[in-house]
Protein: TRAP transporter large permease protein
Organism: Vibrio ulleungensis
Amino acid sequence: MSPTEIGYLSVVAIIVCVYLGFYIPIALTGVSIVAIWMLRGDMELSINLMKIAMSDSVMEYTFATVPLFTFMGLVVAKAGMGSDIYQVMNAGFKNIRGGIGMATVGANGVFAAVTGSSIASASVFSKVSVPQMLKYGYNPRFAVGVVAGSSVLGMIIPPSAMLIIYSFVAEQSVGDMFLAGVVPGIMLTVAYIFAIWFMGRFVSQFVGGTKALDQSWMPVKEIVEKTAPLIGLIAIVLGGIYTGWLTPVEAGAAGAACGLIIAFARKKMTLKIFWQTLIETGHITASILFLITAASIYSRMLGIAGLPNELAVVLEENQMGIVATMAIYVCLMLFLGTLLDTASIILIVVPLFLPLIEPMGLSLVWFGIVTVVGAEIGLLTPPLGISCFVIKSSLDDDRISLKDVFLGALPFAFVMLVVLILLIRYPVLSIGILG
C-alpha cells in the first residue's frame, strides 16, 4: 500500500475502534504506532516517536491550565453557585412564558464561565431546573431539551476544556482561544433565549407551562449575595487574561484559590469533599493528558503519511475554495458528531485540516471556535449525544425517555447550526475581540 492509502486506512481504523468502544487515546495511539511501523518498517521508530510526542505535549507550561481550571469548576459546582445563579435568573424571567427555560439558559451561560464543562452543567441543571419546569406544567421534552441545549455552553464559553485541547493540537495560545470564545458563547446564549421566546409565542404546545411563577421579586441584596461570588470569579479569570495581568495558568490558579475560599466560607467544603475534589481533578487531568499525547503522535503519523498534503492537492484540483472546504469540514463534523464525542472529533479531524486552512490565510483561532461549536452539536445528536445521556441518567425519571431528551434537544441543535454558519461567514465575531 502507498503511504496515502495507509493514512486513509488509519483514520478509518481509528473511527471504527472508537465506535466499537475502545478508549479514545488508546485507539489513537495504537493505530498511529502500527501505521508508522507500516510506513517506515521500523517498530523502534514508532516507539521513539511516541516518547517524543509525550515529552513535547505534556511538558509544556501551559498544560497546567487543565488541572487548575478543572479544579475550579468542580469547586464551584460543589459550592452550590449554579443553583444560586439559577434562582436569580428565574426571578428575572418569571413573567414570561418559557421563563424557566430562559432562566436555565442564562444560568448555564454564567455557570459555564467558571466550570468549562458541558457534563457538569447538564448534571447540575437537570436536577435543579427540570423538576421545577415539570412542576409548572412544562412539556417534559421542552424541559430536558432546554437543559441539554444550554449545557453545551460549558464547552464554548471560556474556560473550556475543548478550547484547551484544541489549543494544544493547533499550537495556539490558550488565552487567545479563551477570549475568542466569549462573543460566540454570548451569541449562542442570546440565540437560545430568543428561540425559547419564539417557541413560547408561536409553538406554545411544545413549550407548555404557565406564563408566570408564583414567586415574588428577589430583593437586590439577595441578588448581590447570590451572584457576587460567581461574577467575581469570572472577573478574576477572564478579566485577568484580557487585561494581560495574568497568564492563563496564573488565572486558573487565582480562580481555583478564590473558588476554594468561597466554598469553605459557605461551609460547602469539608476536608473529605476537598480530598474527593482533588482525586476527581487528577482523574480528569490524566484523561486529558492522555488525549493530548495521543493526538500528538497521531498528528505525526498523518505528516509521515502525507495525508494533509494529499487532501490539499485534491481540493486544489477540484478548485474548492474556502466556502467549499468549510462546507465539507462542517458536514464531516456533523456526521462524526452522531458517532463520537467532541474531544474525539477535534483530535481526529483537526490535524487533517490544519495544513489546509493555514495556507488560505485563515485564522487558526477562528478555526478553533468553528471546530468546537461544530463538534458540540454532536452532544445533542443521536446515537451518542453525551449531554442527553447525562441528563437522562441524572434525572432517573421513568416518565422521560432518552427519546424525549433527543427530540427536546433537536431545536437547540438547529440554533447551534445557525450560529455556526454566522461564525463561519463573519470571522470577526470570534477573533474581533483579539484586536
